[in-house]
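User: quick one, fold this
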Amino acid sequence: MKLLIFTNVILLILLELMLLLMMRLIVGTSPRACHGGLRFSLHIAESDR
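Assistant:
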């Protein structure tokens, strides 16, 4: 029983780390991205056209 909870916690932490990495990749590493992430991504989408 304890082992199950332990593995579940590790999986959750791994998932959160993956999500954080994905956000970091999508938004970019600039410090301003935290405040205007949506505007930043929209700007990238517009510049790709």
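User: anything notable?
Assistant: The two ends are 53 Å apart (CA to CA).
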